[in-house]
Amino acid sequence: MVPVLILALLGAIILVGFLAFAVTSLREGEERAAGIASAIAVVASLPFFLSVFLPAWIQALVLAIALLVGITAAILFLLPIGRAWPANDVPQVRIDERDIMFARGRLEAGSPNYEAYYSMRPENKAGDDKTRSLPGLLSPRSSAYHPLVFASTGASFGLTHALRDAVDGTPAPELLEVDAASITTFVKDLTCYYGALAVGVAEMQPYHIYSHIGRGSGQYGAPINLEHRYGIAFTVEMDLELASTAPYAPTVMESARQYVESAKVAVQLANFIRGLGYSARAHIDGNYRVVAPLVARDAGLGEIGRMGLLMTPGLGPRVRLGVVTTEMPLVPDGRGTDRSVLDFCAVCSKCADCCPPHAIPQGDRQEIDGVLRWRINDAICYRYWNAVGTDCARCMAVCPYSHPDNALHNVVRWATRHSGMARRAAVRLDHAFYGRLPASKARPEWIPPGPRDRPA
């Protein structure tokens, strides 16, 4: 009788578990995953239910096989494979903001800044001029043009631009003495209250700070001297439904909206700190003085993954970042010790496989300028943006970490954090359920069709 109950229970667990997966997938709009999960629910549970009516020796054999599979899975889960040990991935030199594509993309042919930059970096001129010959971001001539969505995107970027001069200011004349530990806790809670998803504190290092101004307020090319000791880094979540339409128009609309949200959080937080009498500067889209992903990494919010973006443990790259630097005494979190994301990226190349211009590298991290990392071809990436008219985000959309924050996917996240074998299994299962080269999702129904956008 006991074997019969165990077999029935195992069959029920498999059936209910995969049917729950199927239902969740349907709610997420993942019809392929739902169909596969439904089929597995029936096929995998059926032997257990059928064996209930078979002779005792067959029941014992089925239980023995199930036990063997369970023990093997447990052993594989606990094997110390795939550990991504700390390596020389800390930059030794500061990045010149004039060299990043967002700064180069703003240079106007024949202008003094244009002439000055390409006198300094003549090797970049031909490729950048080719990029400038393309329609451009949000251009009516771009391949993903959508007048309503692009207008909404421009409205959001306009608000971020309007906040550009609000990033800094004069501290209050009266300094409030604070306890570092207590104010750190309050600042984190306040940042989340303002709208952040996660927040951490890093002790600022030279490589966190750009060497020269490439965009935003201040004089182009001027050296950057930022004396703040601490950086408060935070994330805001991008909506999955809109991000999943990448590289079509809705994804850039959502990206712009979250840049606004991160700017609002950062400006408010910097104002708060200055109100206590301490200097503070918000670093927002288009007006940074710091390399936000590196500050966020060293604040314990994630690791820099294959696609060159911050990979957070909960949502992967499906976030936007903000940073506030300050002299106010804080307790830094320091870089986290969990390197599982790096190991996952090492065995998963889905972003590279799906990258439209093939700007993301395959293979392992390489030592570049003395730093072990993956380096995307940012010139090719940005060139594609100027052709399609959006910020693409295809890598973000297909990343296995970008799945919704719910019980189903959080179980997988927990497993990938604790087991190298689970990470390898998760990559293969993600390909099986969602496809190695999944199609872009259709726009939400509330967004009308555009002349060149994907229909719903």
What this model shows, in words?
With 456 residues, this protein is α+β, with helices and mostly antiparallel strands. The strands form 3 sheets. The chain has a 4-stranded antiparallel sheet with strand order 1-2-6-3, sandwiched between helices. The chain has a two-stranded antiparallel sheet with strand order 4-5. It has a two-stranded antiparallel ribbon with strand order 7-8. A hairpin with a 2-residue loop joins β7 (366-368) and β8 (371-373). It is built from 17 helices and 8 strands. The model has no long low-confidence stretch (mean pLDDT 94). α1 (2-27) runs antiparallel to α2 (31-51). It is 47% helix and 8% strand.
What is the fold's blueprint, element by element?
Layout: H1 2-27, H2 31-51, H3 56-78, H4 101-104, H5 112-120, H6 125-132, H7 147-162, H8 180-194, E1 198-203, E2 230-237, H9 240-243, H10 249-275, E3 280-283, H11 292-298, E4 303-304, E5 310-311, E6 319-326, H12 340-347, H13 350-354, E7 366-368, E8 371-373, H14 378-388, H15 394-398, H16 407-418, H17 420-434
Helix pairs in contact: 1-2, 1-3, 6-14, 7-10, 8-10, 12-17, 16-17
Structure keywords:
single chain; 456 residues; alpha+beta; 4-stranded antiparallel β-sheet; 17 helices; 8 strands; globular
Task: Name the beta content range.
Answer: 5-15%
Let me know the number of strands: 8
- Evaluate the radius of gyration: 25 Å
Largest sheet report? 4 strands, antiparallel
pLDDT below 50 for ≥5 consecutive residues: which ranges? none
Mean pLDDT: 94
Which structural class do the helices and strands define? alpha+beta
Residues in helix, %: 40-55%
- Which H/E pattern describes the elements? HHHHHHHHEEHHEHEEEHHEEHHHH
Continuous helix count: 17
Query: First CA to last CA: what distance?
Result: 54 Å
Strand order of the largest sheet: 1-2-6-3
Anisotropy-based shape: globular
